[in-house]
Amino acid sequence: MKYQIIGKNITVTDGISNAISKKLSRMEKYFLINEEVDCRVVISAHKNDQRVEITIFLPGFILRAEVSDED
User: Fold this and answer.
1) 9: which strand partners?
2) pLDDT in tens, 12-38
3) Which of 4, 5, 8, 34 has its CA 20 to 30 A from that of 15?
4) CA dist list (Å): 53 to 18, 20
5) What is each CA distance from 19 to 26, 31, 57, 62, in whole angstroms?
6) What's the pLDDT at 33?
7) Cα within 13 Å of Cα(54), Cβ side
8) pTM over 0.90, yes/no
9) What residues pair up with 64 in beta bridges, in sequence order?
10) How far apart are CA 38 and CA 69, in angstroms?
11) Buried b (16+ CB within 10 A) or exposed e, 3-33
12) 25 touches 34 (CB < 8 A)
């Protein structure tokens, strides 16, 4: 899986990038994921919360998840 990690109003450090890659690697046992599958992760910081949006482009469909929290 190819990862594209984007930070908006936040700096994406190596620690954040490694944590995201580790979490998303768990998806490989549920789907036939290879190097042709793209994954876009957008991390953004707002006044009162932080948001992570994950979009995985699989052949035939798209998976998308979004979560926001104060911490």
Assistant:
1) none
2) 999 999 999 899 888 877 777 667 788
3) 34
4) 16, 11
5) 12, 20, 20, 22
6) 62
7) 16
8) no
9) 55
10) 25
11) eebeeeeeeeeeebeeebeeebeebeeeeeb
12) no
